[in-house]
Amino acid sequence: MCLLDPIWNASFIGRGREMKGISLTVVSIITFLAWLPGSVSAQTFNWTGFYLGAQAGFAKPKDFVTYGGSSTGVPFNALDEKIVHRENGFAGGGQAGYNYQLGWFVPGIEFDLGYIGFNGKRQSPEPGPENDFALSRGGLFGTVSGRLGAAVDRTLLYLKGGFAYANLELGVADNVPPLTTDATQRTTRTGWTIGGGIEYALADHWTIKTEYQFVDLGEKGISAVASDGITDTWKHDVSAHIIKLGLNYKF
């Protein structure tokens, strides 16, 4: 089995419009990179070195919740229940990394650590049970990414991709008798991220950037014992779009 199979499957199956936008962005940047070598004159700014900074922006998390079954095969209210749970939120924190410039080509590595903030609640749509609610809350969030950049003097255009993790509270709850449950859990999810951005050197040691990231945190099953004694499970498939602005100090 190809090592990239899990990423391709998670990326393109069921992602539709989201992945089309990401693919278009990647193709545009690759086209730019192919054009770049013959178009860049002498570089006066050197991107090589360590950097440290802060960032903040907008996050659009999505939790796609499906009913995963029960311990006895008897469904909780409605079999194959689906709740699509989208929220607007905040993403902010810090980053550190290292770039190494080879002519116009600038590879590097970057570490992000911060908080993704959102607090949502969505009711199960008809014809599902009206008392079921999907719940989601944000928490600690971070990535470890490789970067591939192209420098045009003080401007750096880059792609990035790698490992992502987040500590989120996810669940489905029904607190209306006679049949109640609370399958809610704070859990650390891991997955992958891909994105890109533009960075500009304001001065010899200060740079500013704007960046887009797509994050896929995979699927998580959360179970709970309902009031009838049966264990029910709901599956959460979590992803997020993040747009942010950052400021770096280059050492």
The total tally of domains equals 1
Question: Treating each run of at least 4 consecutive H or I residues as one helix, how many helices?
Answer: 2
**Shape category:** elongated
Structural class: mainly beta
Given as residue ranges, the uncertain stretches (5+ residues, pLDDT < 50) are 1-14
For the largest sheet, list the strands in their spatial order.
1-3-4-5-6-7-8-9
Largest sheet: 8 strands, antiparallel, barrel
Give a brief description.
The protein is mainly beta and 251 residues long.
Can you tell me about this structure?
The chain is mainly beta. The protein has a single domain, classed as Porin (Beta Barrel), CATH 2.40.160.20. It has 2 helices and 9 strands. The protein has an 8-stranded antiparallel barrel with strand order 1-3-4-5-6-7-8-9. The two termini are 43 Å apart. 29% of the residues are buried. The N terminus is likely disordered.
Annotation keywords:
mainly beta; Porin; eight-stranded antiparallel beta barrel; disordered N terminus
List the helices and strands and how they pair.
Layout: H1 5-12, H2 17-35, E1 49-70, E2 82-86, E3 89-99, E4 105-123, E5 133-152, E6 155-174, E7 181-201, E8 206-225, E9 231-250
Antiparallel strand pairs: 1-2, 1-3, 1-9, 3-4, 4-5, 5-6, 6-7, 7-8, 8-9
